[in-house]
Design a protein that fits this description.
The protein is built from 5 helices and no strands. With 104 residues, it is mainly alpha-helical.
């Protein structure tokens, strides 16, 4: 093998490594956005609840906790323990805002 072939090979390896790293960074950012969206859908009252109570009383199920707390408060679907997806907030808009904040 001559030297130019080795240099070409090294350059190709470097280019592919860069592309793989860039793709991995994009995947990480996408997962962070998805996590932020998921966390936004959890009502504050549940976020502040001790984990032991959350697991023991609701088996770790956010929907069960929301339903129970909604019934307990007697306010129905318009209260502050209803998950975001049931409040009518467009998830795409929330995702767009979170991702913008992440990049800033």
């Amino acid at each position: 093998m001559d030297l130019s072939a080795i240099e070409e090979f090294d350059q190709e390896v470097n280019n592919r490594c860069y592309a793989i790293q860039a793709h991995a960074e994009n995947l990480v950012n996408n997962m962070k956005c998805a996590l932020d969206i998921a966390l936004l859908s959890i009502p504050d009252i549940i976020k502040k609840m001790p984990i032991k109570r959350f697991i023991e009383e609701f088996g770790g199920d956010i929907e069960k906790a929301c339903e129970y707390l909604s019934q307990k408060s007697g306010k129905g679907a318009g209260n502050n323990v209803t998950p975001m997806k049931k409040k009518g907030i467009p998830v795409k808009q929330v995702k767009k805002n979170i991702c913008k904040e992440e990049k800033a």
